[in-house]
Amino acid sequence: MSLEKFVEDFEEAVEDVEPGSLTALTKYRELEAWDSLAVLTVIAMVDAEYDVRLKAEMLKANDTLEALYAQVCG
Asked: In angstroms, rounded to a whole number, what is the distance separating the alpha carbons of residues 55 and 51?
């Protein structure tokens, strides 16, 4: 999957994020909508869409969507 598709999937997974409002360089942990529910939703999305077991530590270790994508798909 492409980085662009990953960003779209992330936008769909996190509540209150407008479609098309994020980029690869978005610092997702700084989003107003980033909370414990968003963490769980993103973990579930990555598991379902990418067949990767994403751990909370991986979300903490990255800051941008591009870095998270590299961790998930790299």
From this structure: 13
Which pTM does this prediction carry? 0.93
* pLDDT tens, position by position, 13-49: 999 999 999 999 999 999 999 999 999 999 999 999 9
Which phi and psi angles does 64 have, rounded to 5°? -110, 160
Helical ranges in the chain per DSSP H? 3-13, 36-50, 56-61, 65-73
Strand partners, 64: 27
Count how many domains the chain has.
1
Percentage of the chain lying above the pLDDT 90 cut: 93
Domain that holds residue 42: 3-73
Q: Residue 58 sits in a domain of what CATH number?
A: 1.10.1200.10
Q: Could you tell me if 34 and 42 are in contact, meaning their C-beta atoms sit under 8 angstroms apart?
A: no
